[in-house]
C-alpha cells in the first residue's frame, strides 16, 4: 500500500485501467444513449486510455539511468498521450480530467496533492465542456473529487473514497438525466470513469495487472437499452456530423474558437492547453467546423463522421457479400511467422516487450484486404486491444472473428484445419474447436524470487507453465520440460508440438522427443524452430 503516488504506480494504474475498460468495453458501448446513441463510448474510452498507457510506457523506455522517470514526467506523458489519442466526446473529457490531475500531481504525489488533483481534474473537465450537463461523466468526477476532498486519511483511503463516491454517483445519473431514465441505463461515460477510478484505487493499494484480486468494476445490476448501437435513432434536429481534430493554437485563440463552434452545433468539448488542443463538436456543417480551426491555428488528424452513414454501414454489415477471406496470426518469432505464412496466414510480427496496441492490430487487419478475417491472437493479453481493433474494422464493413488463442501452438492447430472453401461461420467453429482441443505449455526462466502456484522460485529457475499457470519449478530446461511433457501426456494426446525459442539449446528437442517416445511410443512429435525470445520452449498436445 502506497503512502505517496509515484511513477510506477501511475504506470500500474494505466495498465489496470486499460484492462478494466477492455473487460467492460462492450457493456459501456451498450449503455451509450447520450449525447448521441452511437454505441461507442466504451471503445472511445478504451482507445483514449490506451494512448495514455502507451505514452507512459514510452516514458519508462526512455529512462536511461535505471532510476525510473519522475512522477511529473510520467503524469505529463499520460495526460498528453490521452489528449492526442482522445476519441469522441467522452474521450476528450477524460483527457481533460487526466490533464487536470497531472497539473497538480506534477507538484507531488502526497495525499494532499492527490485530493487537489481530483478536484482540479473535475474543474478542468467542466471548463472544457461548452454546456455541462449533470447526470454524465462530469457529475461522477465531481462527486469523486468532493468525497476525497472531505477526507483526511492516507493515499489509499482517498483513492478508495473517490472510487466509492463515483459508484454511488453513477447509480444516481438516471435521476439527473431523463434520457438515461427512459432507456433504463446509467451514464456510459460515468460507467467508464468508475472503472478507471477502481483501477486507480487498486494501483494505490498495491495491486498489479497480474495481481490475485479481481479489478473492482462492479456497480450493481444494469439493464441494457432495448435498442442497440448505431442503429438507434438519433432524434429529430440532431446535428448530422461529428467533427474531431487536434489543433495547434495559442491560448488567446480559444475563446473565439469556442464561440464560433458553439454557434455551429452542440456537444462541444475543447480540451488541452499549452498550445495543443483536442476539439470535438457535433455540427451540420463539418466544413465550417474545420474552417474555425484553421482560423484559430493548425488543425490536423481531422476525423469527420456522418451519423446517418455510420448507422447505414452498421446495418449493411450483416448482409455484405464476402469478397475473400484471410487469417491474421499475431506471433513474436521469425520462425513462427514463417510457419504461419506457410499455412496461408497473414502475419503480424509483434515485439514481445511492446505488444501491439489496437491501432496496430487494426492496421494489420486492413492490410489483409479481405471481407472476412479470422484473427488469431496467440496471447491472452491481447484480447482487449483486439476487441477494439475488430470493432473499428466492422464499422468499415469487414467481418471479423477474434479467436482468443492463448498460445502460438493453439494458433498453429487452428491454422491446420482452416479451409477457405467452407462458410465463414463453419470455418471459425472448426478453427476454434481445434485450438480448444490443444493443451499448451511453455518454459520460462525466472527473473527473480517470486511466489507461484508451484512454490517459491529463485532467479534463474526454469518455470514450467501449463495452461498459463506455473506447475513445475526446475533447475534446467531439459528436466523441467520432461516433467511438463509427462504431466500433459498423462491426460492423453495424439500429437506433441515442440516450438524452440531463440535461446533454446539444439539438444533440447532431441531430449524431449526421446522422452515422449519412452512415455508414449504411439504419440507423434513434431519440432519447429520458432525463434521466439520470451519462451525457450512452447509445447502443444492435441
Strand content: 15-25%
The biggest beta sheet reads: 6 strands, mixed
Compute the gyration radius: what is it?
25 Å
**Order of strands across the biggest sheet?**
13-12-9-16-14-15
Q: What is the overall shape?
A: globular
Q: What is the tally of helical segments?
A: 19
Low-confidence stretches: 209-235, 313-322
What's the multimeric state? single chain
* Number of beta-strand segments: 16
Overall pLDDT metric: 87
Distance between the termini: 44 Å
Q: What structural class is derived from the secondary structure elements? A: alpha/beta
Percent in helix: 40-55%
Walkthrough of the structure:
With 542 residues, this protein is an alpha/beta fold. Helices cover 49% and strands 18% of the residues. It is built from 19 helices and 16 strands. Strands 13-12-9-16-14-15 form a 6-stranded mixed sheet, sandwiched between helices. A 4-stranded antiparallel sheet has the order 2-3-1-4, with helices on both faces. Helix 1 crosses helix 15 (383-395), helix 5 (111-128) runs parallel beside helix 7 and helix 6 runs parallel beside helix 9 (188-204). The chain is globular, with a radius of gyration of 25 Å. 51% of the residues are buried. Mean pLDDT is 87; it is low at 209-235 and 313-322.
Amino acid at each position: 500500500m502506497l503512502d505517496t503516488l509515484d511513477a510506477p504506480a501511475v504506470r500500474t494504474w494505466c495498465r489496470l485501467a486499460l484492462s478494466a475498460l477492455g473487460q467492460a468495453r462492450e457493456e459501456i458501448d451498450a449503455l451509450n444513449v447520450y449525447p448521441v446513441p452511437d454505441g461507442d463510448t466504451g471503445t472511445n474510452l478504451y482507445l483514449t486510455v490506451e494512448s495514455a498507457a502507451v505514452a507512459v510506457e514510452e516514458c519508462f523506455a526512455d529512462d536511461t539511468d535505471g532510476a525510473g522517470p519522475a512522477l511529473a514526467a510520467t503524469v505529463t506523458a499520460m495526460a498528453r498521450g490521452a489528449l492526442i489519442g482522445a476519441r469522441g466526446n467522452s474521450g476528450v473529457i477524460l483527457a481533460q480530467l487526466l490533464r487536470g490531475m497531472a497539473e497538480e500531481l506534477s507538484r507531488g504525489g502526497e495525499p494532499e496533492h492527490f485530493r487537489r488533483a481530483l478536484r482540479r481534474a473535475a474543474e478542468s473537465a467542466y471548463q472544457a465542456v461548452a454546456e455541462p450537463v449533470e447526470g454524465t461523466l462530469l457529475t461522477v468526477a465531481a462527486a469523486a473529487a468532493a468525497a476525497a476532498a472531505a477526507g483526511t486519511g492516507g493515499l489509499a483511503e482517498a483513492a478508495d473514497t473517490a472510487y466509492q463516491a463515483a459508484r454511488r454517483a453513477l447509480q444516481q445519473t438516471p435521476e439527473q438525466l431523463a434520457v438515461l431514465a427512459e432507456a433504463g441505463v446509467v451514464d456510459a461515460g460515468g460507467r467508464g470513469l468508475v472503472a478507471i477510478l477502481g483501477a486507480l484505487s487498486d494501483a494505490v493499494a498495491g495491486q498489479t495487472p497480474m495481481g490475485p484480486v479481481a479489478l473492482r468494476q462492479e456497480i450493481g445490476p444494469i439493464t441494457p437499452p432495448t435498442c442497440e448501437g448505431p442503429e438507434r435513432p438519433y432524434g429529430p434536429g440532431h446535428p448530422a456530423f461529428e467533427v474531431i481534430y487536434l489543433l495547434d493554437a495559442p491560448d488567446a485563440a480559444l475563446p473565439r474558437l469556442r464561440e464560433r463552434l458553439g454557434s455551429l452545433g452542440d456537444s462541444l468539448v475543447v480540451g488541452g492547453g499549452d498550445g495543443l488542443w483536442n476539439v470535438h463538436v457535433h455540427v451540420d456543417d463539418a466544413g465550417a467546423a474545420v474552417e474555425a480551426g484553421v482560423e484559430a491555428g493548425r488543425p490536423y488528424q481531422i476525423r469527420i463522421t456522418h451519423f446517418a452513414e455510420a448507422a447505414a454501414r452498421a446495418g449493411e454489415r450483416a448482409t455484405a457479400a464476402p469478397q475473400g477471406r484471410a487469417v491474421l496470426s499475431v506471433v513474436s518469432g521469425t520462425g513462427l511467422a514463417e510457419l504461419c505464412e506457410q499455412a496461408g496466414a497473414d502475419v503480424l510480427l509483434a515485439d514481445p516487450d511492446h505488444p501491439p496496441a489496437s491501432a496496430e492490430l487494426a492496421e494489420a487487419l486492413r492490410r489483409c484486404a479481405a471481407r472476412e478475417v479470422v484473427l488469431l491472437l496467440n496471447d491472452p493479453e491481447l484480447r482487449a486491444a483486439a476487441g477494439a481493433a475488430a470493432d473499428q474494422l466492422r464499422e468499415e464493413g469487414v467481418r471479423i472473428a477474434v479467436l482468443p488463442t492463448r498460445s502460438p501452438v493453439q494458433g498453429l492447430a487452428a491454422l491446420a484445419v482452416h479451409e477457405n472453401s467452407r462458410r465463414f461461420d463453419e470455418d471459425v467453429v472448426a478453427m476454434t474447436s481445434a485450438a480448444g482441443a490443444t493443451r499448451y505449455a511453455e518454459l520460462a526462466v525466472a527473473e527473480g524470487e517470486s511466489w507461484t502456484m508451484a512454490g517459491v522460485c529463485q532467479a534463474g529457475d526454469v518455470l514450467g507453465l501449463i495452461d498459463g499457470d506455473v506447475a513445475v519449478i526446475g533447475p534446467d530446461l531439459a528436466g523441467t520440460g520432461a516433467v511438463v511433457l509427462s504431466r500433459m501426456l498423462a491426460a492423453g494426446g495424439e500429437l506433441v508440438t515442440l516450438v524452440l525459442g531463440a535461446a533454446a539449446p539444439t539438444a533440447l528437442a532431441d531430449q524431449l522427443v526421446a522422452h515422449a517416445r519412452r512415455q508414449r511410443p504411439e504419440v507423434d512429435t513434431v519440432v519447429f524452430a520458432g525463434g521466439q525470445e520470451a519462451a525457450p520452449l512452447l509445447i502443444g498436445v492435441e
